[in-house]
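Review form for a predicted model. The reviewer records the input and the model, then writes brief findings.
Reviewer: anonymous (R2)
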Amino acid sequence: MEKKNKDFLKDITDKKTFFQHWRFIALYLIIYDLITINFSYFFALWIRFDLKFTEIPELYFGSFVKFAPVYSVATILIFFFFGLYNSIWRFASFSELNRILGASILSFLVQLLGITVFVQRMPVSYYLFGAIFQFFFTVFVRFIYRYITLERHKLKKKNLKKHNTMIIGAGDAGIMLIKELKNSEATSADPVCVIDDNPNKWHRTMEGVPVVGGRESILQTVQKYDIDRILFAIPSASPEDKRDILNICKETSCELMTLPGIFQIANGDVLLRKIKPVAVEDLLGRDPIKINTEEIAGYINNKTVMITGGGGSIGSELARQVSAFNPKHLIIFDIYENNAYSIEQELKRKYPELKLSVLIGSVRDSLRVNQIFEQYKPEIVYHAAAHKHVPLMETSPNEAIKNNVIGTYKTAYAALKNNVERFVLISTDKAVNPTNIMGASKRLCEMVIQSMDTVSRSGRTDLLPLLNVHSNDPENDSLPDNVVYPEVPELKVESIKNNERKGTQFVAVRFGNVLGSNGSVIPLFKKQIESGGPVTVTHPDIIRYFMTIPEAVSLVMQAGVYAWGGEIFVLDMGEPVKIDTLARNLIKLSGYTPDVDIKISYVGLRKGEKLYEERLMAEEGILKTDNDLIYIGKPIPFDVIKFLHQLQTLSKACYSNSDNIVELVKQIVPTFNPLNE
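Model under review:
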């Protein structure tokens, strides 16, 4: 029965496919061509004999009639061969014209040789005018359809509200974009002028649209042509040029949109769909991040990789980039099933051959974490699971410690016990001289990683406490006193490059804010702008370091290649950005005027928030790596045994929801200076 149903559905599908509209159009074209190709040569013969049918010699007319069936079949087959019956003629261009020309030349040769050799030599005008008329009629019916379609689109677009549109870029992308805007009925954008910095193109036209000048004329041209939309169409532009031009454009009240990078544009047919609104990151003007893909491929290829917090903004981008390097098995571990499901479906679509396991659970749950490590045996772990929202953690400090610190300890402990090769912690610049509990918790995470690396070097994993929550052995809650670990050798770049050490290598990667992440201010600002404002900025002078999520993740993966153990890698986030400037740029990019259309309201620093973030503590110092954007912070020495004892106390306190948790953290992290005290 099931097979019959499938066969029935297949029959319906086949019939539906066969009886599509274009097949009827093709049938009409075949009938039309059969008539016109014969009429063309008859018409040529008629002209040759002064437009008098009775004057045509019976020898010539009989030869024409005798050869007509053979020529008709041969010509239709030639037209089929050249694809003249399956083109979408509403988009006909020079490609279709060239195919018609080729088919006409070949059919002319069939007529010339066939009727001359096998039937009768005809007058020269018969061959010449017959070929010309056939070519004309073949082109006419196909391109008149395109013309009528374009006129219908123009009539439809007249009823839409027009957007006078400026195109920036008079290159290949610009001309393709103008053509699509003119031909598409899906947009009301009307290209009225083009901007290009090449003076040789000024005062000329592209598809009837004038090239009016360079970037310095953008502002006056917007007023002259009443422009309300600007499309940036230079996909090969350098980051600096793109930033400078868009910074001029944002001073207008126009809606700004841009094309992606040139490598993302496969062909002109989908150009219009690739246009996207200009984002704040387009104004940063940073050079593209350079990574050594061969090194990363050698590091990831055929390895089992686990990502905790794999459904979050950083974790999901890690999953995307790891998948591109052909891991043996990718494991995504997250507590929030909706995000985990979303990235799972995305990766299955993009990498159907990828061996992927998406698992739900909490890094706080020792039994669950240990079970996963024992079952799947990951070789590389990226630990991105964390609470990151500063104000929320200020009101729930125990949760910050449970999830960030104890969760990191339990995951790192499982990695160490199961012989993971490399463990990479995603940290933050808020861990430097922290002023909030979230930043302090991430500094504690870094200390956990450094402690675990010391334990890994010593080989004394039996001395690590289980912190008893969710453990199989509640008695194993204490740490022996007077334990001395072997001295850790001084960190040198040469030793990192050689990478000769054994055991699990624990490292942390520290960076600032990422544009578009769940905790970023950008989504908040956009929602506030959409609702009409006000846009809330904490302080007019507050600054932050910013990087896009893909940039940050690519550098995290590169830093993982450099890991030797115990390092805190620091990413160069570029120049700091004022949040006030960021908010104003977002308002301008949305087509509004700051403090006129959309108000900016300064609400004061939130709990635990400081005006600027630091990337390194003063006593850390830095070492260079082969990548100019990745540095190594020299580990700050601390008493590992004392720290592990303090960690036990901290664990018990946070799980008992202590009111004194902030004071306990201050005792462990001497650089922690809460602002709200």
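Findings: The chain has three domains: 2-155, 160-278, 298-481+489-517+546-574+615-668.
Further findings: The longest strand covers residues 189-195.
Recommendation: see findings above.
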